[in-house]
Structures are given as structure tokens and as C-alpha cells.
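dude i think i finally got it to work??
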Amino acid sequence: MRTTTGLRGMAAAALILVPVTLAGAQTAKGGRQDMAAIHSRLKTWPKASREAAEYMMKKYGPPAERTPTMLIWGRTGPWKRTVVYNYEVQHLFPGPHTDVMQQWIAYRVPPDKFDDLASYDGSVVVNRTNGEISARCDLEAANFLALNLANEIVTGARTSEDARKKYGEQIMLFKAGKPAPYTAALLFTPPTQGTADADRPLME
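look at this
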């Protein structure tokens, strides 16, 4: 995903990437026939998408819904929802890969931090109105990493440039099989309420 700058760009990206329950979506109940249908469909998906979907099903069970282009999980682990897409988005940070799995948490980002997050990682997307932040990569570990550093930017613990450097350090440790705590889990507890921001009216 290309990095967007400014509130307008971030808001537009959020509107594009935040999924809703789609017309024609099927509920995946996890039965033998249903799982067989999912696995059959995955055979035609790109490798990164297929691996992300298999990982999610092994760790969290079958998806709650599916469409021809997405598998959708509701609340699992720390996530508010997860979507695995059947198409890849090229991303060069911190190294070439494709983004196929997007994961959301409830989180409130002050508007004056939007640009900092955009310059940090274009695959971190904020939806101010819904009170959500998401990360989109090819691995859950990378999404943990992206959001842990996003939280440190929002709380003032790091600058966006420092966060980019830390991201590179942690992902290299992870790929080398060494301890990389930022990739293991969320290092903060997402709020459960009070993150939405309905803004204020211009007209009475």
C-alpha cells in the first residue's frame, strides 16, 4: 500500500480498506463440507494469501464469513476482526513483500498524529470515526509489530523515523528465529470502548 499523507488521504484509505458485511457474503460454519469448499477456493489464491488463510484457520478456527475475494474473522485473540484477501498489494517497507492480511483493533488516534503514522507505515490505517486502527501485511507477527510501534508513536515514545528503524530491527530478528517481542503479541491493551469520534457538526 502506498503511504498517504494528511488527514484527507488517511481518511480516504480508511474508507476504502475497512470492510463491511457484504451482500452475498456466506457464513462459514466450520462443517466438513464448508471447510472443503474454503480449501478448494484457496487453491486458486496467491501463495501469500493462501498461507495467511491457512495460518488463521489453524490458530483461530474457520472464518466467520467468506466472499469470493475475502475470508473474514470476527473477534479472535486481540483482534476486533481480520480479513485475508485473495489479492496482493505490493509493499516495499521494510523489504519487498505483499500485503494480504488486515487486522483491526479499537483505538483512538488524535488527529495531530495521523501524519506521523502515515509517514511511518502506509499499511497502518486509521479510521477516526469508527475509532479503529489496522495493519495490513502478510503475517500476524508483522501486524503485531506495526501496531506496537504505531502505539508508541501515538503515545510519544517514538518518532515515526525511529519507529521505522525499530521495525527493521525487530523483523530481522524475527526472520532469524531470534526473540523479537514486538512481533509476538500486542504490548499494550486495546481499549474496549470510547474510541469512536463522531466529530462535530458544521450545521445545526
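DSSP finds six helices and seven strands in the chain.
im so relieved honestly
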